[in-house]
Amino acid sequence: MTAKSPMAGALREQVKEAIQSQKRPTWTVLSSLLAIQDAIGYIPDEAIEEVANHHDTTTNEVWGVASFYTNFRFTPPTTHTVEVCWGPTCHLVGATKIIETLHDELKLEGEGDTDDGLITLRYNTCLGACAQGPVMSVNHRLVGRVTEAQARDKVSSLSKTKAKKH
Amino acid sequence: MASYEELKKAADKKWAELTGGKKPWIRIGTAMCGHAAGAYDVLDAIKAKLKDKKIDAVVSETGCLGLCYAEPLLDVSKDGGARLFFGNVTPEDVDAIVDDYIAKNVVPKGKALGYLAGEGQQPIKGMGDLAKLPGIALQQRVALRNGGNTDPGDIFQYIANGGYSGLNKALSTMDYNAALDEIKNSGLRGRGGAAFPTGVKWSFLVNNTAPKKYILCNCEEGDPGAVNDKTILESDPFTLIEGLTIAGYATRSTNGFVFIRHGHNGPIDRTEEAIRQAYEHGLLGKNILGSDFSYDIEVALTGESYVAGEETALMEAIEGHRSMPRARPPFPAAFGVWGRPSNINNVKTLSYAPEIISKGAEWFNSIGVNKSKGTAIVCLNGHITRPGLYEVPMGLTIGQVVNDIGGGVPGGKQLKMLQTGGPLGGVLPASSLDIHIDFDEMSKAGAILGSGGVIIGDDSVCAVDLTRNLVAFEQYESCGKCFPCRLGTTNLLEIVNRILEKKSRPGDLDLMRSVGKTMQAGSLCGHGQLGFNPIRSAIQHFEADFEAHMTENRCPTGSCDTPKYMPITTRPFSMEAVAERAGD
């Protein structure tokens, strides 16, 4: 885990800043990792090292935590995140079709990032609006009772936006 | 710091101003259901419209009234009169609501659902009384009493509606033993799934004289199909904060944690704001309301992990580790978070405490049946006409909730199955509608009330297909600590998959039973112990579906004959990723 370039130095500063600006009283390895994920959208190697430094533990221990929770990602984020629910309620009311539509529209075969680095597709076990199933979310805005056509529209309008530089 | 009486006086004054009719008061539900239905688009539209028309009105985001099917749900009260509700509101409806109803007092046809009148308020002419709607009439709201009525971001609205009278009563008239006795006598049982008597649980903590003791409130609520806890936090976080403070007093604890999953920003933000306001007004912190009781509460976040909702795994997550369960003993009351005495309660359980203290154990005891006192919050969804989040007294039958409140299965189809209590709760056949909502009766019937989720499946649903979905969830969420669960769930999924693909092998059902037995015996927590439930109950009640796939190579409903994607996501740090990193 070597980070010598000036870019990497800036990243390390961002990571430190994220750790230091936590507002809740109790800081742990997990809370620091979540703060970094919120601030820069992913967990770079620098974050693992800085969290280990801050909490006086090993990088091994920090990797252990980071790799366990499914919401962490380890590569820079794309511009948009689309989540789709595959919980049992959404499954019964048509989530499969929505997921297939999204795969088709994004040219993905499962979870992941589009080739142009613009959109990330994630499955979610429950987006929390079961009465409105099937549910998807676009950049954390929930969309309920979503149809295949709506899913296609939502994604294709994202595709027309420009990728954000990280 | 203000006394309770001073706070109450200020709150009553503010409430009288809000409801007095000087300005129209528009309330719109923006809890997760409303959010998904488009409430924020409506909110933007109504704010723009009011600005455009230069109408001075109060617009509040509220929580959940329970009628999720009618979201986005918006209501207007004006001139001190009853609240007129509009359902399934779109931004296009905003013109009529503002131009006709607010400006000219003309009720727009079509979108208006009915009215709710408070004491001394007149009905709205030409409209029906929503209080007579089964979805409201059959509800008895205790934990969610303020849902949809008050602004969850305003402590004065909570206090004006009776909030903090419970804590004030406890601190000023009861010693901690009396407060604990009140909870014991109320018959309150834990709403997290195990239904353990809450007062007894709290008493484990009382006699421990450690200098720091923790009450942990579990809002991890990873169960798909149940959003009860998060809805309480979004609708009325103060009831939880007050309940958690009462629990702290009754157990002589020093700190409370509210444990929520990262990413659920609605519940997180509203809870943190409630905590902030409680500190601001001397309802948390040192010497609460001038008493000698001090208590601190903070929010702790977990990453995405279902098992984090298990009580010992939850403590691991609060400490910042992987949320994997610990072996018991030692039990949390002796050795909990950071090795200190701890007590874990569900959001719903704690949310009853303020009303129990305020109105007395007798009152709570009078709601419900047998050994199941109080109310149950049912998250009704799936193939149902009126999905919603209904708080009903214990003792109603499941059929009353499904048919009377929920309006039954839509589209002329027949009810086939109910999936209750989260993915580990298993499935029930249509004949279970006569079962009463009662912890003990349900567990005798092989179901659990658990998190309160009730998912309805009509006759187009293939039992094997739904089972696959539940088992896939289990496999995905196994934390991996106990190998019977880690390997067992993977093995079960493999077998259910091949049954679904009509490639089953002879003896597959027995093989699954044997795997299930090992999981039950060899897992530390409920995830593995109960992991066979969905399959066991599905085979028991829907054997014909399995038989058809296994012996006749067909699906009786025809619904699983379509190509399937596989909802398996390996944990991000997969073996492939490990290998790739090692090669760096």
Q: How is this structure best described in words?
A:
The complex is a heterodimer of chains A (166) and B (584). Chain A has 166 residues and is α+β, with helices and mostly antiparallel strands. Chain A folds into 2 domains: 6-68; 80-159, Glutaredoxin, CATH 3.40.30. Chain A contains 7 helices and 5 strands. Chain A has helices at residues 6-20, 29-40, 45-54, 59-68, 88-92, 95-106, 148-159; strands at residues 80-85, 112-113, 119-124, 136-138, 141-143. Chain A has a 5-stranded mixed sheet with strand order 2-3-1-4-5, covered by helices on one side. In chain A, strand 2 and strand 3 (119-124) form a beta hairpin. In chain A, helix 2 (29-40) runs antiparallel to helix 3 (45-54). Chain A is elongated and about 50 Å long. The model of chain A has no long low-confidence stretch (mean pLDDT 91). Chain B has 584 residues and is an alpha/beta fold. Chain B has 4 domains: 16-132, Glutaredoxin; 163-364, 3-Layer(aba) Sandwich (Rossmann fold), CATH 3.40.50; 369-458, Ubiquitin-like (UB roll); 463-551, de novo design (two linked rop proteins). In chain B, 41% of the residues lie in helices and 14% in strands. Chain B contains 24 helices and 16 strands. In chain B, the strands form 4 sheets. A 5-stranded mixed sheet of chain B has the order 2-1-3-4-5. A 5-stranded mixed sheet of chain B has the order 13-12-16-14-15. Chain B has a 4-stranded parallel sheet with strand order 8-7-6-9, with helices on both faces. In chain B, strand 14 (415-420) and strand 15 (427-429) form a beta hairpin. In chain B, helix 19 runs antiparallel to helix 20 (508-522). The longest helix of chain B has 18 residues, at 483-500. Chain B is globular, with a radius of gyration of 25 Å. Residues 569-578 of chain B have low confidence and may be disordered.
